[in-house]
Structures are given as structure tokens and as C-alpha cells.
Write a structure and sequence with these properties.
It is built from ten helices and 15 strands. By secondary structure, it is an alpha/beta fold.
């Protein structure tokens, strides 16, 4: 006998580096676990319409700008659940309208919460390691520490793509590649990598709906306009540079931590400080509202 299929609309609501989470009562399916807001898609209702409705009914706020996040199918013992995920930013003006018992949790805290199994891939996408090493050497993948990713900054010539094809797929979940390289990878490689990198010029040419569904994007930004563009089209994180003077770009005008803090406060997705970073700057970046740091030499 075939299992029933349930379509559920789920909202990933973001504010600064926090995510809105609730608690499922024991009597509910997959009860006594944490959950993201959402609910069943009614007959004749689109998943996005269901998401808007559920958030208004459950959370108490109406949001206009939504981005498709992913579609996940998960089979339980008794039912097949299709999760239609969307994410949106909650502005400060609406924070006081959020109903109980919804609570904000940091991305790190999500790792310690007991969610239904169908939500595990969502948690993995929302959490970012706090350090990104930038290198042209794939061998650096094997040297990464637990809280690090590698942005493989290369041109993507055939020799480099061949080198990547020879790497074990198990290493790819810690790898970031530019979108031009991503588009040349096999479907297995595309599925495995951690994130897609966008140069600022590539970022500014995109509009909402252009990003590949279910993939994580990190955008290189050098000003507030590009940071806001990254958030507007649905990117997951930002590399902001140059924060401090660098050896590689001595003529570039550094933002400084004060400007970094001012710009970071105007977006709600993780921002990594890039340019002149030292290992000890991670704490400083967090104090200024950033999520992490990125660079070549300090890692």
C-alpha cells in the first residue's frame, strides 16, 4: 500500500544572523521536536501562497519578498513529505509583532536543536563555518580545520577542471567555486560542493529568481549597494572586502572596522570580512556584527 504524500510549505525567516524556530507539540507528527514555521499546502493553493498564509496565521507577520530556498522530499515510516522551502528577511519594525512561542536562534545554535530528519539538510545549509581559506591549491582541502571552507580561486581552465574531477567527492562539501566553474562541473560535483561564488560583476547582473534552486551562494561585495543586491536576489552570504589594507592590493582603499560594522548592520545574511585578516580578527569581526573571516595567508 502506497504511503500518503503531504506537501508542506516551510519558511526560513532571517534577522541578522538569527533564524526563527518553534516547537512541535507531542501530539503532532514528529512531535517534541523543533521546527521552522509553516504548514500543509491546501488543495488549489500554491506552496508560496501557503507559506505566506501560514506565516501570517502562525507567526503574525505579513512579508512581501520571498525567495525559493529548496524542495526536499523525505520518506518517513508512515508518510512521504515534500517540503517546499522559502526564505525571507524579517525587518526590525516587525520583530515585536512575532507571536509566541517562536524564538530566534543563532545559526550555531541550530546544530544543537532536535529537528525532524527532513530538516537536517536545511540546517547544514544555514550553518556556515566561520573561516574561509582562499587558495588556488586543491591540496589545501585536505588541510582544512573543522571550522573552515576553501574557496578555490582559479580561472577554471581544463587542466584545473581535470584536477578537480580527480578529487574524492567526499571532500567537495567543503569547497566553494565560482559560478563559471560550477556550470562546467558534473551533476554529482554540483550536488556535492558547499557553495557557489559570485564576483561582484556577476552578482550585479542577476535578478531575483536567477539563482539555482537548492544551492548555497556567497557573493563578493565591495560596497553597500552590492551587499543589498546579494540579499535581494537571495544569496546566502557575503564576502566583504577590503576591510583592512592588504599586501596583494596595496592601492585599494580599506573600509576599516567602523565602515564594516555600519554596512553589515544593513543586511541580514552572514558577512565574512576579507582583506588583511589575521587569525585573531575573527573575534573582532564578530564584535562588529560579522559572521566570519576569509583570506589567504592567515589560514
Amino acid at each position: 500500500m502506497s504511503k500518503p504524500i503531504i506537501h508542506v510549505a516551510i519558511a526560513i525567516l532571517l534577522h541578522q544572523n538569527n533564524v526563527l524556530v518553534g516547537w512541535r507539540e507531542a501530539k503532532q507528527h514528529q512531535g517534541n521536536k523543533y521546527e521552522f514555521p509553516g504548514g500543509k499546502v491546501k488543495e488549489g493553493e500554491t506552496p508560496l501562497a501557503a507559506c505566506r498564509r501560514e506565516i501570517y496565521e502562525e507567526v503574525g507577520i505579513g512579508l512581501h519578498d520571498w525567495h525559493a530556498f529548496d524542495v526536499i522530499e523525505h520518506e518517513y515510516d508512515d508518510v512521504i513529505v515534500n517540503l517546499h522551502l522559502f526564505h525571507a528577511i524579517v525587518p526590525t519594525a516587525l520583530l515585536n509583532e512575532i507571536q509566541q512561542p517562536w524564538t530566534w536562534y543563532s545559526r550555531e545554535e541550530l546544530l544543537d536543536l532536535n529537528f525532524p530528519k527532513a530538516n537536517l539538510s536545511i540546517i547544514q545549509r544555514l550553518y556556515w563555518p566561520h573561516q574561509i581559506k582562499i587558495s588556488a591549491q586543491l591540496d589545501d582541502l585536505a588541510q582544512l580545520k573543522q571550522d573552515q571552507l576553501l574557496y578555490w580561486r582559479v580561472e577554471g581552465i581544463q587542466q584545473q577542471l581535470t584536477e578537480l574531477a580527480g578529487r574524492s567527492v567526499e571532500h567537495l562539501p567543503r569547497l566553494i567555486v565560482n559560478v563559471d566553474i560550477f556550470e562546467q562541473l558534473s551533476s554529482i560535483q554540483q550536488q556535492a560542493i558547499s557553495a557557489i561564488h559570485l564576483k561582484q560583476s556577476q552578482l550585479m547582473a542577476l535578478k531575483p529568481g536567477d539563482l539555482t534552486l537548492g544551492k548555497r551562494y556567497i557573493a563578493a561585495c565591495h560596497d553597500l549597494a552590492s551587499m543589498q543586491q546579494a540579499q535581494q536576489i537571495g544569496c546566502d552570504a557575503i564576502l566583504l572586502s577590503p576591510v583592512l589594507p592588504t599586501v596583494t592590493h596595496p592601492d585599494a582603499v580599506a573600509l576599516g572596522w567602523e565602515q564594516f560594522k555600519a554596512w553589515v548592520s544593513q543586511v541580514d545574511i552572514p558577512v565574512f570580512a576579507l582583506g588583511g585578516m589575521q587569525a585573531g580578527d575573527l573575534a573582532t569581526a564578530k564584535e562588529q556584527g560579522g559572521y566570519g573571516i576569509a583570506g589567504m595567508r592567515f589560514l
